[in-house]
Amino acid sequence: MDKKAMYKMSYGLFVLTSAHEGKDNGCIINTAVQVTSEPNRISIAVNKSNFTQEMIQKSKKFNISILSETASFDMFRRFGFQSGRDADKFADFSDCSRGANGIFYVTAGTNAYISASVEQMVDLGSHMLFIAAVDDMEVLSDAASATYAYYQSEIKPKPQKTGNAGKTAWRCSVCGYTYEGETLPDDFICPLCKHPASDFEKVTI
Questions:
Q1: What are the residues whose beta carbons fall under 8 Å from the beta carbon of 90, sequence distance 6 or more?
Q2: Count of Cβ atoms closer than 10 Å to residue 167 Cβ
Q3: Does residue 162 carry a pLDDT above 70?
Q4: What is 10-39 written as a DSSP string?
Q5: Which of 64, 100, 158, 177 could crosslink 14 through cysteines, CB 3.0-4.6 Å?
Q6: Rounded to an integer, what distance in angstroms lies between the CA atom of residue 67 and that of residue 107?
Q7: How many CB atoms within 10 Å of residue 147?
Q8: Over the stretch 12-59, which tens digit does the pLDDT of each residue have?
Q9: Eight-state DSSP code of residue 7
Q10: Least confident window among 4-13, 42-51, 139-148
Q11: Which string of DSSP letters, residue by residue, matches 72-100?
Q12: CB proximity list for 81: less than 8 A, separation 6 or greater
């Protein structure tokens, strides 16, 4: 089975944000879709280990900022490669505004945002599916939306040669981090994006 087939799917990338009890947080997701137009509803699926998911369960409100092809890799580092339990992702970050619901949305590297209120929650095991009514939305720019395939080919940094030609290594398919060694431990977690060993591919450097 070739896991790279998933990269061919044309889903977008989003910064999902929420707020609860005076704390703001956000994470990167690729699972936001419109499910009905009348009334206007969207769905998002969020890993249950994400702090943002916990905040949405409690607040029942969230924003999604639609990432565009102008987004930088630093955006993914800020919102995707660290946990809101350990870091304030909005500290020293000025490229954002608060929506009418009091939750931040991202204004740089995005082309629109949508505010929504949760109507239903479905436990999917590893993820929680939220079905939500759209409360507000606005177009921010005309830049094309960034797909996951575009992220893989254009935004994610290309791996650098280490000078050890012919050496076996394992490369994270999400962020590009490279682990050098003949074998990758089954319980290995990427130190950058926190993805498991199953998201690494064997390469020769």
A1: 24, 25, 26, 96, 104
A2: 13
A3: no
A4: --B-EEEEEEETTEEEEEEES--EEEEETT
A5: 64
A6: 10
A7: 20
A8: 999 999 999 999 999 999 999 999 999 999 999 999 989 999 999 999
A9: G
A10: 4-13
A11: -HHHHHHHHSS-TTTS-TTTT--SEEE-T
A12: 175, 192, 193, 194
Q: What are phi and psi of 7, to 5 degrees?
A: -70, -20
Instruction: Supply the pLDDT for residue 98.
Output: 97
Q: Which residue is it, tokens 């109507």?
A: 119
Outline where 16-153 has alpha helix (H). 51-59, 73-80, 148-150
State the pLDDT at residue 82: 82
Q: Is the pLDDT of residue 164 over 80?
A: no
Which is nearest to 50 in space by CA: 89, 10, 22, 92?
Answer: 89
CB-CB contact of 54 with 60 (8 Å) = no
HSE (side-chain half, CA atoms, 13 Å) at 3? 8
- pLDDT, mean over the chain: 90
**Size of the chain in residues:** 205
Per-state percent for the chain, helix, strand, coil, to nearest 5? 15, 40, 40
Dist CA 134 CA 14 (whole Å): 16
Can you read off the two tokens belonging to residue 159?
């791996």
Q: Assess contact for 140 and 113: CB atoms under 8 A.
A: yes
The pair of three-digit structure tokens given for residue 112, joined into one six-digit string = 């629109």
